[in-house]
Q: What sequence folds into this?
């Protein structure tokens, strides 16, 4: 039931922006870049608690870790598909080590694939 509540759209953009500590335009930019997908009712964006959590994570990546929005999109896509980014309590868990390990893993795969079949 907790998960269902977290995904229920509750907040209009002005309230969501206030909760996340951002300007509403920033939320629109995140949506334009594909980082956020709020539900809509009659053309009004509605944000859930999970959306607010995601916005805070995006802010952490961009402001605290220096990742650009394209990098944030890649990280979120990887972790959404593999669910490695969630801790036992369901919260996002990212560290610089996680990012370095993922980058090293991807580099190794590229080198392995590029050197073999040719």
A:
């Amino acid at each position: 039931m907790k998960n269902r509540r977290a995904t229920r759209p509750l907040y209009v953009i002005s309230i969501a922006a206030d909760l996340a500590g951002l300007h509403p335009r920033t939320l629109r930019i995140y949506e334009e870049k594909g980082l956020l997908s709020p539900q809509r009712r009659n053309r009004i964006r509605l944000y859930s608690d999970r959306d607010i959590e995601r916005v805070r994570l995006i802010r952490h990546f961009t402001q605290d870790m220096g990742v650009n929005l394209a990098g944030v999109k890649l990280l979120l896509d990887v972790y959404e598909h593999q669910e490695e980014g969630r801790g036992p309590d369901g919260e996002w868990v990212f560290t610089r080590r996680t990012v370095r390990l993922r980058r090293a893993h991807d580099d190794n795969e590229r080198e392995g694939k590029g050197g073999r079949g040719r």
Notes: The helical segments are 2-7, 13-20, 24-32, 49-64, 69-82, 96-116. The two ends are 52 Å apart (CA to CA). The CA atoms of residues 6 and 49 lie 5 Å apart. Residues 114-118 have pLDDT under 50 and may be disordered.
